[in-house]
Amino acid sequence: MMHHIGIRREDKNKWERRVPITPAHVKELKEHHQIQTIIQSSTIRCFSDESYKKAGAIVKEDLSDSKVVFAVKEIPKELFEEKKTYIFFSHIIKGQKYNIPMLQTMIDKKCNLIDYEKIVDENNRRLIFFGRHAGIAGMVDTLWAFGQRLQHHYHIKTPFEKIKKTYQYPDLQTLKGHLTDLGKQIERKGINEKITPLIVGFSGYGNVSKGAQEIIDLFPLVEIQPKQIPTVFDDPSDRCIYKVVFKEEDLVRPKQQDQKFNLQEYYNNPEQFESKFQQYTPSLSILMNCIYWDERYPRLISKSYLKEAIHSDMFRLHIVGDISVDVNGAIQPTYKVTTPEQPVYVYNPDTDTHTDGFMGNGLAIMAVDNLPCELPKDASTAFSEILWHFIPDIIHADYNVDFDDLILPPEIKNAVILHHGKLTPSYQYINNFL
User: Fold this and answer.
1) Nearest 5°: phi and psi at 120?
2) pLDDT tens per residue across span 103-133
3) How far is CA 171 from the centre of its chain?
4) Are 398 and 324 found together in one domain?
5) What pLDDT was estimated at residue 124?
């Protein structure tokens, strides 16, 4: 018996060219698992309609024959069908207001919802994600903006001015080849003594941070610990980049001075901690923000801090690559998300204003919120490589039974947010936002 799954067309914006399942895995599912894929036609998708047809998919608009519908981003609420199972990034687990109407529609139509973001292993590590490619693209776009700002605003020439925006490279291999060549140029000729030492800091050490570090590691590198930052200025080299990764204990301290830092205590009671990151900020050239943040946590950079610090001769921070893109969040001057076309703006703390582009006085901020879209084929291939192994279990599950009796791999069952239109036990808290 042939089962049917659907892949919906992505239409959130012109940059969303990713797919959850590639043609290669569509073919594998049909030939070895008797799972037929129905996919809506798209003119912007990174894999063509023809490539899906060759893999054995059916290209048509109507997905009503599909037992389960896969997407990448949110699905417009008017497209949900009653009692159907949907899998996508719902962006609802924080109670995001803009998606409450979508969630309510799914509840009203008694849908099942599985969220990729909550597919985790026994250690709560995400299994299916675009984080690595977000980090990669965010680092490249930040280096592009850094090079352009130095050249055009400060009239400082560096090898970074030759870097392109991520989407302007045909693929990750070409991108890495170009940056590797620039790294060799830095080894031979240096960066520019006017900005030496060039210190790049990373807040966090998860998948996003690892992706960003994957790019900076292509350059000649010296990795240092936070406490070593002052020593770099004793005898700095312009033929390398200094990399420093900040963990939680480097970012905050307990408000009660007699207490020692405890990671679990920080997670449980973040309001009892305060930022100590300001001791490092002035020494950095670039900061890549890769951490989870909500309003309970201290900020890395506040507007009030920046207004005072930016006028110090010791302040060297040119740009923040805010990959996490929490508006008014860990990086308070992040006031909006940007696009791959125009990825950066400059915040002036004296006037509390922002100027699009890389010119102007203040701190430059890269705040693209759909970074993996800039590497759609590479990102989709890596995503699908993990996801497709779960699809046979997802498609063969009987969703008519009670949730306790629903047979799914634990990684998938833990990610079921709605079952029969009701919030499952782990997600009852979302009722507070409805």
Assistant:
1) -130, 165
2) 999 999 999 999 999 999 988 889 999 999 9
3) 18
4) no
5) 87
Joined together, the tokens standing for residue 265 give: 């205590």
Residue where the block lists tokens 């805010």: 322
- Backbone dihedral region for residue 340 (phi beyond 0: left; psi -120 to 50: alpha; all else: beta): alpha
* 179 and 254 both lie in a single domain: yes
* Closest C-alpha among 60, 71, 10, 70 to residue 38: 60
Rounded CA separation 106/85 (Å): 10
**Does 426 share its domain with 352?**
no
What is d(CA 148, CA 343) in angstroms, rounded to the nearest whole number?
12
Q: How many structural domains does the chain have?
A: 2
Long-range contacts at 183-187 (CB < 8 A, ≥ 24 apart): 183/218, 183/219, 183/220, 185/159, 186/159, 186/219, 186/220, 186/239, 186/240, 186/241, 187/220, 187/239, 187/240
Q: Do 382 and 370 fall within a single domain?
A: no
DSSP structural state of residue 301: B
* DSSP state letter for 57: -
Same domain, 333 and 256: yes
pLDDT(293) > 90: no
pLDDT > 90? residue 373: yes
**0.70 surpassed by pTM:** yes
